[in-house]
Design goal:
This protein is of the alpha/beta class. 56% of the residues lie in helices and 12% in strands. It has a five-stranded parallel β-sheet, with helices on both faces. Helix 2 (38-50) packs across helix 9 (210-224), helix 3 packs antiparallel against helix 4 (83-107) and helix 5 (119-128) packs across helix 8. The longest helix has 25 residues, at 83-107. Bound molecules: adenosine-5'-triphosphate and magnesium ion.
Length: 233
């Protein structure tokens, strides 16, 4: 027998509520160091979410808007960018992304899946570039306020593993070529964020074969959003 929460009538009501623009969408982010498999995972996760009939926006940082994509080109180029300029450029791209893409999508009841978000600044500009946390926190407050992800999937693997995976792609970008010490600090700072926000950030061991990693990610997604997925599934 159907429980009240799963009766056809309740299902119908909940589906109506979910597609109501007054109902905010879910915000999911993928994080991790160079070459851990974020972008590969994004495709599978997006398909999993869309298979549930959910209207999903897939995006990335830095980027996601015309301004953000220009800033991304500048950030990944080989010229000298001091850490403070890097931090402000990333947040310039981020605040535009939040106001132009993420906020409106969530307000319209759409879901958003982003390849990196604010944790990346704590990891790269805080951990990697050794900038103090306070200015990052202040920029976070200014740029995103309470728009924290509902779930962050942190792909974690040894730095050498990630670098090996991206090495065959050709010349390394400014972050990939910043040195092992930099990348180790990025990894440590990401793991520190996961300890600080254990309810939001889920660490997945990305050093394993792709099918195992992807299986774990999909299971985590299904568990975390069982209610959203279950009612209309
Ligand atoms: N679990 C895995 N095992 C082995 N190879 C993998 C795994 N996951 C991804 N790869 C491969 O590693 C390479 C890097 O993956 P991907 O581009 O998804 O990483 P990324 O985290 O998005 O990298 P970047 O930090 O450069 O954006 C790709 O060639 C991908 O096919
Ligand atoms: Mg990528």
């Amino acid at each position: 027998m159907n429980s009240p929460a799963h009766s056809p009538i309740t299902n119908g009501l909940l589906c109506a509520i979910r597609s109501n623009p007054m109902n905010k969408g879910r915000f999911i982010t993928l994080e991790g160091g160079e070459g851990v498999g974020k972008t590969s995972a994004l495709t599978v996760l997006a398909q999993t979410i869309r298979d549930r009939g959910i209207d999903l926006v897939v995006t990335r940082e830095p980027g996601g808007t015309p301004l953000g994509e220009r800033l991304r080109e500048l950030l990944l180029g080989s010229w000298n960018v001091c850490p403070e300029a890097e931090l402000m450029m990333i947040f310039a791209a981020r605040v535009q992304h939040v106001q132009e893409v993420i906020g409106p999508a969530l307000d319209a009841g759409r879901w958003v899946l982003s390849d990196r978000f604010v944790d990346a600044s704590y990891a790269y500009q805080g951990g990697g570039r050794l900038l103090p946390k306070e200015p990052i926190r202040m920029l976070e407050e200014l740029a995103i306020r309470d728009m924290q992800p509902d779930l962050t999937l942190l792909l974690d693997a040894p730095v050498e593993v990630g670098l090996q995976r991206v090495n065959h792609r050709g010349p390394l970008d400014r972050f990939e070529s910043a040195g092992l010490g930099f990348l180790e600090r990025v990894r440590a700072a990401y793991l520190q964020r996961a300890r600080e926000f254990p309810d939001r950030i889920c660490v997945v061991d990305a050093g394993r074969p792709p099918e195992i990693v992807l299986g774990d990610l999909v299971t985590t997604l299904n568990d975390r959003f069982a209610n959203d997925f279950g009612y209309c599934g």
